[in-house]
Amino acid sequence: MYEQTFPHKRYKLTYQFLEKHISKSESILDLGIENPFTKILKNNNYSVTNTKGEDLDLDTTNIENAEATVVTAFEIFEHLLSPFTVLKAIQADKLVISVPLKLWFSSAYRSKTDPWDRHYHEFEDWQLDWLLEKAGWKIIDRQKWTNPTKKIGIRPILRWFTPRYYIVYAEKIS
């Protein structure tokens, strides 16, 4: 077997977390359009389909009608106004979700050039846990990691030891 290479630390850690919990025989609905991480999953023999770019705050039809056994949402929920609605629409019994964590030393991300690339939510871990619980999900496993940069300054130093990403594996409560 060859050593898998990843363009980003978070891709490697996300893949390792997913591989720990999700079998390659399961079908995955990945929320959001196809992206570089989707391609990594497909190249590693996961069966993945994506939503079609619809506004998931307004249209959950593809989620409700999906026959996938697992739903993944990698850095998607922070862009939604109402992630609760999406969580309630999921028919699959398993969920893997990652979000950027709210950093006390940095304001929420907002692109200067793309009006759709902004974070409505940047969660604290307890907020995502509570959201999942309220929507009928039981957290089985969780992990956090940092996102260090090679820039100079106080905030880049803080990023070396302050967790930036939070990933959760949850199962639907019957």
From TrEMBL:
<keyword id="KW-0489">Methyltransferase</keyword>
<dbReference type="GO" id="GO:0008168">
    <property type="term" value="F:methyltransferase activity"/>
</dbReference>
<keyword id="KW-0808">Transferase</keyword>
<dbReference type="InterPro" id="IPR029063">
    <property type="entry name" value="SAM-dependent_MTases_sf"/>
</dbReference>
<protein>
    <submittedName>
        <fullName>Methyltransferase</fullName>
    </submittedName>
</protein>
<dbReference type="GO" id="GO:0032259">
    <property type="term" value="P:methylation"/>
</dbReference>
